[in-house]
Automatic annotation (TrEMBL):
Gene3D superfamilies: 3.40.50.2300. This is Response regulator. Residues 5-122 form the Response regulatory domain. InterPro entries: Bact_response_regulator (IPR050595), CheY-like_superfamily (IPR011006), Sig_transdc_resp-reg_receiver (IPR001789). CDD domains: REC_RR468-like. The lineage of its organism: Bacteria, Bacillati, Cyanobacteriota, Cyanophyceae, Spirulinales.
Length: 126
C-alpha cells in the first residue's frame, strides 16, 4: 500500500487531533492540517494532497466557498474533496454534488475507521 497524503481543513483543534491520530494509526498516511479555508487552499496548491477533508462550517471562509476556489484553480481542481460535516440535509448534499464534492462523511465519525471510509469512497486499496 502506498502512503497517501491527506489535507484536513477544519478549524476545530479536537477534530484535527482525532483525524490525524486515527488515520495515522489505522494506515500511516500523512495528514497535513489547515485551520482555515485560505490556509487550506495555500497548502493544497503547494502540497497537492491525494484528498482533502473539508469542514463546512468555519469562520471567515466556509467549506462551500473553499471548495469553489479549489475547483476554480487549475492546480487544485483535480484533488478529490470530501466534506467532513454535521450538516447533512438534502439541500446541502445537492449543493455538495454541484460543487464537485466526492462525498460527505457525517460528524460524529469513528476516527479509527475514517481511513477505511475514505479508501472506500475513493476506491483505494488498503
Amino acid at each position: 500500500m502506498s502512503e497517501k497524503s491527506i489535507l484536513l481543513i477544519d478549524d476545530e483543534e479536537t477534530i484535527q487531533e482525532v483525524v490525524k491520530i486515527g488515520i495515522e494509526i489505522e494506515v500511516d498516511w500523512h495528514v497535513a492540517i489547515a485551520s482555515s479555508g485560505s490556509e487550506g487552499i495555500n497548502l493544497a496548491q503547494t502540497q497537492h494532497p491525494d484528498v482533502i477533508l473539508l469542514d463546512v462550517m468555519m469562520p471567515d471562509m466556509d467549506g462551500f466557498s473553499t471548495v469553489a476556489q479549489l475547483k476554480a484553480n487549475a492546480k487544485t481542481r483535480s484533488i478529490p474533496v470530501i466534506f467532513l460535516t454535521a450538516k447533512t440535509q438534502a439541500v446541502e448534499k445537492d449543493r455538495c454534488k454541484q460543487l464537485g464534492v466526492v462525498d460527505v462523511i457525517t460528524k460524529p465519525f469513528n476516527s479509527m475507521t475514517l481511513a477505511s471510509q475514505i479508501a472506500k469512497i475513493l476506491h483505494w486499496d488498503l
